[in-house]
Specification:
With 247 residues, this protein is α/β, with parallel strands linked by helices. It has a single domain, classed as 2-Layer Sandwich (Nucleotidyltransferase, domain 5). Helices cover 38% and strands 26% of the residues. It is globular and about 55 Å long.
Length: 247
Amino acid sequence: MRAPLSEEVVCQGRIETSQIQADELCVKMQWGTVWIATAVCVFSRLFIWGEVDARRNTGLVQRVVEHVWMARTRSGPLLWVTDGFGAWAKAVAKVFRNPIHTGKRGRPRLQLWPKLSFVQVIKHKTGRQLLSISHRLLHGSWEAACQCLVCSQTQLGRFNTAYVERLNASLRTWLPALARRSRTPARCQERLRTALFWTGCVYNFCQIHASLQGTPAMAADITSDVWSVRELLLCFSVRSKSLHTVL
């Protein structure tokens, strides 16, 4: 069982969103460190996808970007906001492309999705002291990016990564292996990945947000009710039995 609800329910091209935020977490395991890359829909606070890898590189974040592409509808513009890690921009530019059909034989040329705006939030520090924050536009226009910002954030402000950082803070709170000071380090990547998706499903379907007056899944129109953990477990059980029946 990897992530049945995340892939079968969330990543089905049904998510309406104007802004995506993504970030990475450094996790200390028993035999070294690994990285977790996550992406969140800003308006609904919906956890879309997460990946675990021993290295912080383009391959790690590209798998997250691919699932965001599968999860989101193709209607309307999109603002993507990350920190200064350049691999996100490379992965988004590679995945968010549409084929240009000209009627000629052969594989059609791919073009960057024209409704995409990509903004980096770069924090300038001296040690741990934050000196300033700058913003860099890599794709799209500032006008389109600002329009997406107005449509997606209930509390208007400058471009930031606050929403995905709040998600990562929730994951650190609920998963002992992600705590910065913990006596229960993760032992293997597969267990960490399973725990990540289970926590993400509880976050999406069972956790009520005061600002949303419901769960992220309700805000994203995936469900109309708050799920209990028991209902979520039964859903996992039903999908697992269906899979064994097919096999």
